[in-house]
Amino acid sequence: MSFQRSISVIAVLGRAVCAFHLLILGYGRVGRDVAHDAQSIFTTITGTVRQPSEPVGNIHLIPFQDRCIQPLLSNCSHILIALPPPREKDDELEAVLQSIQQQFPRNGWIGIISTTGVYGDHQGSWVTETSVCSPSSESASRFLQWEHEWRKKCQHNGYQLAIFRCAGIYGPGRSALHTVYRNTASEGGGITNRIHTHDLSRAVVECMRKSRIGDESSMGDCEIFNLADDLPESRAVVLKYARDLLQSGGLWDNTTDNMVLPSKTSNRARRRETEEKRVCNRKMKKILLDGTNLIFPTYKEGLRHILEQPSEPWWERKVYHP
């Protein structure tokens, strides 16, 4: 899509009086899933991308530029921020954030995708939304500061705010199966937490739905939700389960298992080795999911489902035959 065409589409969207218009800042993996699941409750859905792009179904995609986003804000009801906090000053992002404060209607809903990394190390104990946050990495510290900044913005402007602290996100295209299959697994690490992208999306969309109908009995002006599945587990156990699944499908040769270990330990790997916590999802299940079960309550159901999907990369590759 040309930039000129993007502008014309934006103008039309800006003039439309949409009762429920969702704007997703950051149309990546999370943004795509949320947009797909939210189509039943929003009249219009717009996602931002770094380069102009054709619409995906009835989801409009626009460049992440203030002049493109600004015309939409006064008619938006919900904004999901699925962007990480910037490592350094980002003038375009700052312009967008300033426009939101100036033009997004009061009582609008803003959701922030954050991380359970803000809790830091709790030596394997359970953490809830009220647990102490002591991030041990620069990235997690930025997310915690990002949360604080949005709290101030929303309190000052009268917005509803939902902060989603997500455990490790996995799903089609990225999982322990992919890590094992590509020989990029690094061992080590204690108890870790995860959430299938479909369950993450479901929880976020249900939060939007409840804010839309004004369910004040269960939703406040600022809510924090841990998004995690029911079974924290050690990384080694999860990787072993992934290997067993691949081997049972003839996709893993354990007799030639020459795992390629990273030459340097990544920041993420170091956090796995030094941070242990079990993330409690009780609030998410009670308030957002109305006490119902997750689609993938543990990594076992999630990995099996991924393996069975014909769109996965290994179905195109040569199957190992002993």
Automatic annotation (TrEMBL):
SUPFAM superfamilies in UniProt: NAD(P)-binding Rossmann-fold domains
Lineage: superkingdom: Eukaryota
InterPro entries, per database record: NAD(P)-bd_dom_sf
Keywords: NAD
Family under the similarity heading: Belongs to the NAD(P)-dependent epimerase/dehydratase family.
Protein name, as recorded: NAD-dependent epimerase/dehydratase domain-containing protein
Lineage, uppermost ranks: Eukaryota, Sar, Stramenopiles, Ochrophyta, Bacillariophyta
